[in-house]
Amino acid sequence: MDKKLKIVLAEDHETVRAGIKLLVEAQDDMEIVGEAGDGEALIKLAAEKLPDLVVMDISMPVMNGLEATKRLRQLCPKVKILTLTRHSDDAYIRQLVTAGSNGYVLKQSAPVELIKAIRTVADGHSYLDVQLTERVMDSYAIRTESLRGEKTGDLTARESEVIRLIAL
Question: For residues 168 and 133, is the Cβ–Cβ distance under 8 A?
Fold first, then answer.
């Protein structure tokens, strides 16, 4: 068997963390090598364990996920970062992507979505939860139109679908 994907999990709710750990460790190609309940503990753990990927909540005590993402990028620039959160606001997405997050998954999504996101990010690609893709694409289109000062016209349902699939 190939080398397992080493993952550090950062989530302040112990029950949620335990559930995610069970889900991830049920995969033959993944293992949780460390767990943290806050951002500061995550930074220390990541420096010690040197994981391939970190799955991290945004809302954590001591140091939140946004600040932890920035610090991880400085300390462990090769580690992949997947944000797992309940927040679906565009502002959170923009801030985390700017800080260096490689992917963004909602806790409300199906468990298979998290596993898919982990594999996608571990393979060096970006990932955006399917529940957010259409809204983010629409927001991007609106901003682009306003910057150009022109309207590009409404997309058909099929055109929107093709754009969402390309984004995925």
Answer: yes
Rounded distance between C-alpha atoms, residue 61 and residue 74, angstroms: 20
d(CA 4, CA 52): 9
Residues 136 and 94 sit within 8 Å (Cβ to Cβ)? no
* Beta sheet of 127-128, edge-to-edge order: 30-36, 5-10, 53-56, 80-85, 103-106, 127-128
The structure tokens listed for 7 are 């993952």
Total length of the chain: 168
Residues 6 or more apart whose Cβ sits within 8 Å of residue 136: 90, 93, 128, 167
pLDDT in tens, 108-166: 888 999 999 999 999 999 898 877 766 666 655 555 555 555 444 566 777 777 777 77
Give me the phi and psi of 154, to 5 degrees please.
-80, 145
- C-alpha–C-alpha distance, residues 89 and 79, integer Å: 25
Query: What token pair was written down for 10?
Result: 């950062």
Q: Supply the pTM of this predicted model.
A: 0.77
- One-letter amino acid of 128: L
And the tokens for 80?
A: 């992949």
Q: Is 8 left (phi over 0), alpha (psi -120 to 50) or beta?
A: beta
